[in-house]
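// run 5 | inverse folding | seed 20
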């Protein structure tokens, strides 16, 4: 049986690769790789959600310990999820079994660069529109207009269903002021000079 490479080994191999890749090609490759997982997430929530349509998202997160490692996290929502960099969102219809891409956002630096560029190639126009709307605070309006629907955002959904959620058992918790940390409880007996400190 062949031994699989660890995430650290794969990260070192990727870092040593000096080839410059086209971001659009990477995007297509990423889409081919993640679509089976998007479909699996959509089908997994088929029995959980009663609604005929819901949202399925991919979130890309970097690993805090291994540089260059990206983790893919999938989730489904009854409302329009909040947009964030490195996110792809689809609308899933239970009746037809079809997915419709709503948006796909690159990392924050690329979003800012695309948004600040006055003119972009045709293939980047949707990304520019999404990035511009993200920075202007008009994201929901654009997504609703592009897709001709009136789905609610998370805040709107919670406000609209507040009474129903409370009746179903969700308790309304009063928001108290947080207590500031008491630094007088921290005591230092002795400070070692790092140049002279030695491990026993």
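// decoded
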């Amino acid at each position: 049986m062949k031994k699989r490479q660890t995430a650290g080994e794969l990260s070192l191999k990727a870092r040593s690769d000096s080839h410059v890749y086209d971001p659009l090609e990477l995007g297509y490759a990423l889409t081919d790789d993640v679509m089976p997982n998007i479909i699996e997430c959509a089908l997994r929530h088929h029995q959980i959600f009663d609604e005929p349509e819901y949202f399925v998202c991919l979130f890309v997160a970097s690993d805090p310990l291994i540089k260059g490692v990206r983790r893919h996290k999938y989730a489904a929502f009854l409302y329009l999820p909040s947009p964030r960099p490195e996110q792809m969102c689809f609308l899933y219809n239970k009746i037809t079994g079809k997915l419709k891409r709503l948006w796909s956002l690159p990392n924050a630096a690329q979003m800012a660069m695309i948004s600040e560029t006055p003119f972009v190639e045709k293939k980047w126009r949707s990304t520019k529109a999404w990035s511009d709307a993200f920075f202007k605070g008009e994201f929901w309006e654009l997504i609703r207009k592009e897709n001709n629907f009136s789905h609610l955002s998370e805040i709107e959904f919670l406000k609209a269903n507040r009474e129903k959620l409370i009746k179903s058992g969700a308790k309304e918790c009063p928001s108290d002021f947080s207590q500031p940390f008491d630094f007088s409880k921290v005591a230092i007996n002795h400070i070692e000079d790092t140049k002279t400190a030695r491990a026993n």
